[in-house]
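Supplementary Methods, section 5.1.

A reviewer requested that the exact input to the structure prediction be made available. We therefore reproduce it here, unchanged from the version used in the analyses.
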Amino acid sequence: MRIDYDPDAMDPGAFYKLLTAVVVPRPIAWVSTLSGDGETANLAPAWL
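The structure derived from this sequence is encoded token-by-token as follows.
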């Protein structure tokens, strides 16, 4: 059975709980980097 969810019609807290329950694997950390010239920043999830 397929269930469709409309994020605009949901409470933001309920939508967040739904997303965190279905996204697997979950990141264990966030890794940030900055380019050598200091112009470009990057943020990415990290998994084990």
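Helices lie at 12-22. These observations are discussed further in the main text.
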